[in-house]
Write a structure and sequence with these properties.
single chain, mainly alpha, 11 helices, 0% strand
Amino acid sequence: MQAKSCDAHPPDVITCKMSKEPNDSLAIVSGTPFDFLGVFCDSVIAGGAAGVVVEAALYPIDTIKTRLQVAHAGGKIMLKGLYSGLAGNLAGVLPASAIFVGVYEPTKQKLLKSLPENLSALAHLTAGAIGGAASSIVRVPTEVVKQRMQTAQFASAPDAIRLILAKEGFKGLYAGYGSFLLRDLPFDAVQFCIYEQLHIGFKLAARRDLNDPEVAMIGAFAGAITGAITTPLDVIKTRLMVQGSENQYQGICDCVRTIMREEGSPAFWKGIGPRVLWIGIGGSIFFGVLERTKQILEQRRIRDQESKRY
């Protein structure tokens, strides 16, 4: 979002929107230097709020998706306990989402300032990947515990953590870490790039800031497209994370070969329906809550800065 002085002059809208910060919802107050700490703190709060809302609202769809992906040919899908592991997952999603957005926003703004305007997509791709890498430290253990509870391996998050540590050691909490990065780094980069570029395009076309339904629509589209094309990577990641100490797969390559040999290529698209539905709806909620929360925090920060001047 640009400084208020830009939006106050309609003839200059295009000039404002084409600045080095074409889609910075966390605005830099006109005439002040880049407030890294302020942007980071606001991003952490907004990211945490958005992540928790999405997980709480759509967890059952995620559970069904996970169970579809781990089921072998002819296996039945259990529809009980669709909220298994929700509480423990929320405890991990909150810091993971906060870290992701807290890293993504300042990184994005710095890159947008450094790169030419025609490379804004590169800034969004890079910032998304960096944010995903930073948050993976928390996201991977959370995902391991969540998916094993979704597949009825454990009754509670504390039991899951205790037994994983006992049987597999600390590395068990990071099972499938490589496949997680293989899926999530391109996912985060592409999803946020699509969203940001569409957001910029819509603002230029409308010559105004977008409203909540428009933000939700763009977020849903970005999430659904990215969720669909990364489904094979998600299947591999899920299989490696839930296998536990059985070690059915010896790594990413072995997992791919085994699935191809035993189930064929269609197995890589298992759960695509729930995944697209989950991430599409999740994208609309996540980006809607994210943008609204950032706007509220930004307005409060601007008021605080203005009050200090007088």
